[in-house]
Amino acid sequence: MISLDDVRAAARTLSGVAHRTPVLTSRTLDRRTG
User: Fold this and answer.
1) How big, in percent rounded to 5, are the helix, strand and coil portions of the chain?
2) Which of 3, 10, 20, 30 has the most C-beta neighbours closer than 10 Å?
């Protein structure tokens, strides 16, 4: 089981490397692409 400490450690590791991006959804696109 992944713990909160594991998640925090991963966040520290990825800090400065990974970029936060917004997640956008589209019902129309979801329907068309399945």
Assistant:
1) 55, 0, 45
2) 10
